[in-house]
Amino acid sequence: MLKHSLYGLMATLLAAPALAAPITVYKSLSCTCCEDWVSHMQASGFEVDVINGDNLTPIKKLAGVNAELASCHTGIIDGYVIEGHVPASDVRQLLKQQPEVRGLTIPGMPQSAPGMDIPGSPYEVLSFDTQGNTAVFNRYPG
């Protein structure tokens, strides 16, 4: 199943951005924080297609997510990569602004991010380009 998912991912990444399509999320079946983030996205009005897999490294590599930018799940929406627990409001802002970036990430798993939901840890949402360069997209106090 994951092999076919890679072909679908490649087609999605190469497609031109359109109106907000469903977000496809690649995650581990056993990851409860990923499920909680999916619920956060759904509660925020996003349609979410989930593809479970045991080895997400090929997905992340194809999506252009290097190890420093990685988190536990990878989403693709309208040609953008959403890596980790990025708030739905930032995904909406990305889709509205359509900047020339590869996507957004929250490297690691900050405890206050959506899906983790343990207040107190400040974190940053980063945009990243195809070369792996980053910039702060948004900051959260935790």
Radius of gyration: 14 Å
Residue windows where pLDDT falls under 50 for at least 5 positions? 14-19
Secondary structure: number of strands:
7
- Sheet with the most strands, sense and barrel status: 7 strands, mixed
Based on secondary structure, the structural category is alpha/beta
Q: What is the count of helical runs?
A: 4
Helix and strand sequence = HEHEHEEHEEE
Q: What is the overall pLDDT average?
A: 88
Strand order of the largest sheet: 2-1-3-4-5-6-7
Secondary structure: helix percent: 25-40%
In whole angstroms, how far apart are the ends? 37 Å
Portion in strands:
15-25%
Report on the structure:
With 142 residues, the chain is of the alpha/beta class. Helices cover 30% and strands 24% of the residues. It is built from 4 helices and 7 strands; from the N terminus they run αβαβαββαβββ. It has helices at 2-14, 32-43, 57-63, 88-97; strands at residues 23-27, 48-52, 74-77, 80-83, 103-105, 123-128, 134-140. It has a 7-stranded mixed β-sheet with strand order 2-1-3-4-5-6-7, sandwiched between helices. Helix 1 (2-14) runs parallel beside helix 3 (57-63). The protein is globular and about 30 Å long. The protein starts with a helix and ends with a strand. The model is unreliable at 14-19 (pLDDT under 50).
